[in-house]
Amino acid sequence: MMKHAWDNYRQYGWGHNELKPIARKGHSTNIFGNSQMGATIVDALDTLYIMGLHDEFREGQEWIDKNLDFSVNSEVSVFEVNIRFIGGLLAAYYLSGQEVFKIKAVQLAGKLLPAFNTPTGIPWAMVNLKSGVGRNWGWASAGSSILAEFGTLHMEFVHLSYLTGDPVYYNKVMHIRKLLQKMDRPNGLYPNYLNPRTGRWGQRCYYVTASAYLLKAWLMSDKMDTEARKMYDDAIEAIEKHLIRKSSGGLTFIGEWKNGHLERKMGHLTCFAGGMFALGADGSRDDKAGHYLQLGAEIAHTCHESYDRTTLKLGPEAFKFDGGVEAVAVRQNEKYYILRPEVIETYWYMWRFTHDPKYRQWGWEATQAIDKYCRVSGGFSGVKDVYSSSPTYDDVQQSFFLAETLKYLYLLFSNDDLLPLDNWVFNTEAHPLPVLH
Ligand code: DMJ
């Protein structure tokens, strides 16, 4: 599947950010600005390496060496460029030892630094790589930056300081942490939106989005960063109390708190949290390891149900637990599957920590469904309705399909000594970064 995805991108989308597998041409979205930065190449590198696809890895390296240029007049998402490009380049560097990846990662980080030039030091969501001018998305509450987006910068920025000896990156992200620590937290929860001009929370929305960076900061520091672990422990206690519920059919789910009430809806993105609870079980407060492993298993089960209750056996973007509905999407615009990794990510973590064969079985079901319904002759495509027996394609092969979905599947069927979790921490885009002993 990796060969099929890569070869078609190589043939029809090379140098573009992503591939349109049906139109057989390049694809891009506004997160990468208007330039061709080969997002799929950078995102896929470490997966190619891990899978032993060395010729393909070398092709990617050559393209990066000759063509990857960040001096472009292009406004990009700081978060996306960080997790996919800086994370991808750093992982490729650590795995292969090739200096070019480190050099490019540091060059790119320099282009993102102007995003931190705000009155509070909370970065803008977007930055122009040439001018350094930053701004926020129009849709984010009151011109806010987004918690998971700026929070997860921590992982890569700590590594950048470690590799360069320059504390500037570390200082930027530690400043964010200090600021967050000082803020009020309604019910112990961090709201999703923070205004970088005023330093005040925006709309009081609480989601568990795809970032476990506090836990990972602790792990990455060889468990020395106990401040991060404490913040993680406090946060998950509040999450469990206010956002996690059991449906009438007995399924544990994580809801979304908006406008003063809990919406009984869980996003595919939130399914990563099963793996997070398992990863954080060891070292948990009051020795509740068993409890968190169980919680991880329950989330994995719920997310598997969201796949199993569809026609295609692929999970919808969001599913409800309301009015007799259990783990099923209700609105048409929540029925799509865009090759996302989070459910498989959770299967893999659960497999590593329990070796219960059901996780491999569930991963295999998902593999077969993706191969049956998302494979087209020009690559892999998302589908618009997982409840339809004749689904239409969205015609996008997302770069995270190669970076994450296929990597987690490969790891699920590999031995534990391939990237052992004692030595590696996976960033928000599944790029492995070594523990800093
Ligand atoms: C990826 O870019 C990352 O996993 C991110 O954390 C969330 N969105 C996509 C995958 O769904």
From TrEMBL:
Transmembrane segments: none annotated. It is a single-pass type II membrane protein. It is found in: Endomembrane system. Ca(2+) binds at T428. Its cofactor is Ca(2+). Pathway: Protein modification; protein glycosylation. One of its GO terms (biological process) is carbohydrate metabolic process. One of its GO terms (molecular function) is calcium ion binding. Its EC number is 3.2.1.-. Disulfide bonds join C271-C303. It catalyses: N(4)-(alpha-D-Man-(1->2)-alpha-D-Man-(1->2)-alpha-D-Man-(1->3)-[alpha-D-Man-(1->3)-[alpha-D-Man-(1->2)-alpha-D-Man-(1->6)]-alpha-D-Man-(1->6)]-beta-D-Man-(1->4)-beta-D-GlcNAc-(1->4)-beta-D-GlcNAc)-L-asparaginyl-[protein] (N-glucan mannose isomer 8A1,2,3B1,3) + 3 H2O = N(4)-(alpha-D-Man-(1->3)-[alpha-D-Man-(1->3)-[alpha-D-Man-(1->6)]-alpha-D-Man-(1->6)]-beta-D-Man-(1->4)-beta-D-GlcNAc-(1->4)-beta-D-GlcNAc)-L-asparaginyl-[protein] (N-glucan mannose isomer 5A1,2) + 3 beta-D-mannose; N(4)-(alpha-D-Man-(1->2)-alpha-D-Man-(1->2)-alpha-D-Man-(1->3)-[alpha-D-Man-(1->2)-alpha-D-Man-(1->3)-[alpha-D-Man-(1->2)-alpha-D-Man-(1->6)]-alpha-D-Man-(1->6)]-beta-D-Man-(1->4)-beta-D-GlcNAc-(1->4)-beta-D-GlcNAc)-L-asparaginyl-[protein] (N-glucan mannose isomer 9A1,2,3B1,2,3) + 4 H2O = N(4)-(alpha-D-Man-(1->3)-[alpha-D-Man-(1->3)-[alpha-D-Man-(1->6)]-alpha-D-Man-(1->6)]-beta-D-Man-(1->4)-beta-D-GlcNAc-(1->4)-beta-D-GlcNAc)-L-asparaginyl-[protein] (N-glucan mannose isomer 5A1,2) + 4 beta-D-mannose. InterPro entries: 6hp_glycosidase-like_sf, Glyco_hydro_47, Glycosyl_Hydrolase_47, Seven-hairpin_glycosidases. Keywords: Calcium, Disulfide bond, Glycosidase, Hydrolase, Membrane, Metal-binding, Signal-anchor, Transmembrane. GO terms for cellular component: endoplasmic reticulum; extracellular exosome; Golgi membrane. It comes from the Eukaryota. It is an enzyme of class 3 (hydrolase). Involved in the maturation of Asn-linked oligosaccharides. Progressively trim alpha-1,2-linked mannose residues from Man(9)GlcNAc(2) to produce Man(5)GlcNAc(2). Belongs to the glycosyl hydrolase 47 family. PANTHER family: MANNOSYL-OLIGOSACCHARIDE 1,2-ALPHA-MANNOSIDASE IB, MANNOSYL-OLIGOSACCHARIDE ALPHA-1,2-MANNOSIDASE-RELATED. This is alpha-1,2-Mannosidase. It comes from Opisthocomus hoazin.
